[in-house]
Amino acid sequence: MIKGSQLVGRAVIDMEAAERLGRIKEIIVQHDGERVAGFVVVHRETIVGTGGKRRMIPASAVYSIGPDAMTVRGSAMKEQLAELDSRPRMSDIIGHRMVTRSGRLLGVIDDMLINGADGTIVGFVVGEGVRNKLENIFNPQRSCVHGYVRADSDLHVGKELIVVPDNALIEGEPAAQQGDDKAAPAKTDRAGGWEERASAESTRPSIWTRPTDAAPPARAGAPAEPRLKSETARACETSHAATLGNEAAGEPATPAIRDAAVTTVEQEQSRK
Fold this sequence. Notes:
Elements: E1 2-3, H1 4-7, E2 11-14, E3 19-29, E4 36-43, E5 53-58, E6 62-65, E7 69-72, H2 81-84, H3 90-93, E8 97-100, E9 105-114, E10 121-127, H4 129-138, E11 147-150, E12 156-157, E13 161-164, E14 169-171, H5 174-178, H6 184-187, H7 193-199, H8 231-248, H9 260-271
Parallel strand pairs: 2-7, 8-13
Antiparallel strand pairs: 1-9, 2-3, 3-4, 4-5, 6-7, 8-9, 9-10, 10-11, 11-14, 12-13
């Protein structure tokens, strides 16, 4: 079992072409939350995260995950690429707060546990979050939860909160219980573990979605809503239209608004 954060930054090697493809930047998750769907791999990206070449690798192309690199089959990297872009990332899951059905606040998700042999998601690591860590500084006696919530539990996922069964928490450090990823290559000495798991049918409905900041598109043919205009703006538009009309007719333009004092003098002279 390996943490998702330990995979990010790991080298990716095409073992058929004997070529380094780049490094893992993001882990793509299936909507059901049961397995890894693929990886976002970048090559020659700058230190600030710009430039370089970006590609997606489906989980079915993974051959093995070793301590230094992930090996893939280049001939299988073009499968299901169109679907991967719409699937959630590990970064979309990190930060959700978890609470049990009985009302116990566990903490926030700060990592993900993955079976290195076939890409099954084992659980979500419970973290303290920045706020809880600050509270622990001023209140050392405050109880803390260490462990992970099983990914195969009956999870109810909201926008920021996840409600989990009371027995879904496995307490203790995950690495101490399951060991690290160094044993993974011995279990993946043959192609098929990741490929078989990726092709398996889901056993539950979708629970994870990928958030988007895009505004909903406007309906086709819908008239734009007119903006309200002040009395001053309407008067200026009327004056401007009258000026353009006079210029087009060859008449000199006259101001639309005349001084009140001048108008009064002209009226007195006409009476005389």
